[in-house]
Write a structure and sequence with these properties.
mainly alpha, elongated
C-alpha cells in the first residue's frame, strides 16, 4: 500500500524529526504493545533510518492513513483513508455535531470543543480555581461555560496567528 496524497497531512513533512517522535510511537504501538496490522516497523527504510523520521516520512503518512481505516477495508481499497475521513469517524464516535462539507480546521475545532466541554461538565469547583490560577487569570470565579468560551477565543487567536505565519 502507498500513501495517498492528503493536503491535511502534508504539514507533517515540515516538522523536525524529533517532533514526529510521539506520532511514530503511537503508530508503532506505544509501550511495547505492537499493533497487529502495523507495517511501518518492518519496512527497510524504517529499519535503516529510525529514529530519523524525516527519512521515511511517506511511511509515517501511509501508516497514519492505514491506522485510521478499517484493516480489512484497507486491503480492498489498497490503502488507508484520508485524514478528513478519520476525523469524521472520530467525531461520529464522540457524537460531535458537524457537517462533512465543513473544512478540516473547523471540524477539528468542533471536536476539541466537544472534548473540553465533556471534560468540564464534571469538573469540581476547586479544580476550576486551580486552572484559572495556573492560567494566571485575575479571577477564580469561573464556570465551565466561561472557561470553554475562553478556550474558543484562544483557539481562534492561535489559528489566526498560524494562518498568517505558516
Amino acid at each position: 500500500m502507498a500513501y495517498k496524497y492528503d493536503q491535511d497531512l502534508e504539514f507533517l513533512r515540515k516538522m523536525r524529526s524529533n517532533e514526529l517522535n510521539e506520532l511514530v510511537e503511537i503508530l508503532k504501538g506505544k509501550g511495547g504493545n505492537n499493533r497487529i496490522s502495523e507495517e511501518m516497523t518492518g519496512n527497510k527504510l524504517f529499519k535503516q533510518y529510525y529514529p530519523n523520521h524525516k527519512k521515511y516520512i511517506n511511511l509515517i503518512l501511509e501508516e497514519l492513513q492505514c491506522y485510521g481505516g478499517n484493516t480489512f477495508a484497507n486491503i480492498f481499497r489498497d490503502g488507508g483513508v484520508l485524514y478528513k475521513k478519520i476525523l469524521c469517524n472520530v467525531c461520529d464516535k464522540m457524537k460531535v455535531k458537524y457537517n462533512k462539507s465543513q473544512n478540516v480546521r473547523y471540524i477539528e475545532d468542533l471536536l476539541l470543543t466537544k472534548i473540553l466541554s465533556d471534560t468540564l461538565k464534571n469538573i469540581k469547583a476547586e479544580d476550576l480555581k486551580t486552572i484559572s490560577k495556573d492560567l494566571k487569570l485575575k479571577t477564580t470565579d469561573f464556570t465551565p461555560m466561561l472557561l470553554l468560551l475562553l478556550y474558543k477565543q484562544l483557539l481562534e487567536v492561535v489559528v489566526f496567528y498560524f494562518t498568517k505565519n505558516p
